[in-house]
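Progress report, Aim 2. The chain analyzed during this reporting quarter is listed below.
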Amino acid sequence: MTLNVRRLAGWALIAGTIVAAVGYLAANLLAPGSGDEVFRYRF
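Predicted structure tokens for the chain:
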């Protein structure tokens, strides 16, 4: 069985995009405040 490296790289990019989007969404929902206050908050 041959491994198609381009196809594997494509799936890695898709998976990374999904993980990053979920991470940004979670961080946005977990940070208190609104507007610029969100960026000043530190865990």
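DSSP finds two helices and no strands in the chain. The chain has a mean pLDDT of 80. These observations will guide the mutagenesis work planned for the next reporting period.
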